[in-house]
Amino acid sequence: MNISRTEQRVLHVLALGGLIIHERGDGPKINAITCVTREGMVLSDCDLNVFYRLRKKRLIESRDGKPYRISKRGRMSVRAQLDNRGA
After folding, report:
1. According to the lineage, what is the superkingdom (predicted)?
2. How confident is the model at residue 86 (pLDDT cuts 50, 70, 90)?
3. What does pTM read for this prediction?
4. Does any domain span residue 45?
5. How far apart (Å, rounded) are the C-alpha atoms in residues 69 and 1?
6. HEC states along 3-58?
7. I want to staple 59 with a disulfide (CB 3.0 to 4.6 A). Which of 1, 70, 74, 84 is the partner?
8. By the 8 A CB rule, do 29 and 41 touch?
9. Residue 79's pLDDT band (boundaries 50, 70, 90)?
10. DSSP assignment letter at 81
11. Closest-CA residue to 22 (of 62, 59, 50, 53)
């Protein structure tokens, strides 16, 4: 599967415990999203285009109207990256 660099970055944040909070307008269409890391920081690379591409590829999922998280398929397709936090 061909996954872009920004999609990989978002998937990596989600794999580490982040989530995507979505907001709907009057209808069923999602009109705003916010990607939040495990520490509570906002990832600015994640926009609606990246969100829709990830959802179309079924790499993220939402259950019962809760925030979007990484799916099993997403966990299998994310490439390993070094964690940038100093240990």
Report:
1. Bacteria
2. very low
3. 0.86
4. yes
5. 19
6. CCHHHHHHHHHHHCCCEEEEEECCCCCEEEEEEECCCCCEECCCCHHHHHHHHHCC
7. 74
8. no
9. confident
10. -
11. 62
d(CA 35, CA 42): 6
Asked whether residue 80 is domain-assigned, the answer is: no
Q: Residue 24 sits in which domain range?
A: 5-73
First to last CA, the chain: 32
CA distances (Å), origin 87, targets 21, 77, 82, 83: 29, 26, 12, 9
Measured N-to-C along each axis, helices 5-15 and 48-56 cross at an angle, to the nearest 10 degrees, of: 80
Domain count, the chain: 1
Which amino acid type is present at position 24?
Answer: R
* pLDDT tens for each residue of 8-53: 999 999 999 999 999 998 999 999 999 999 999 999 989 999 999 9
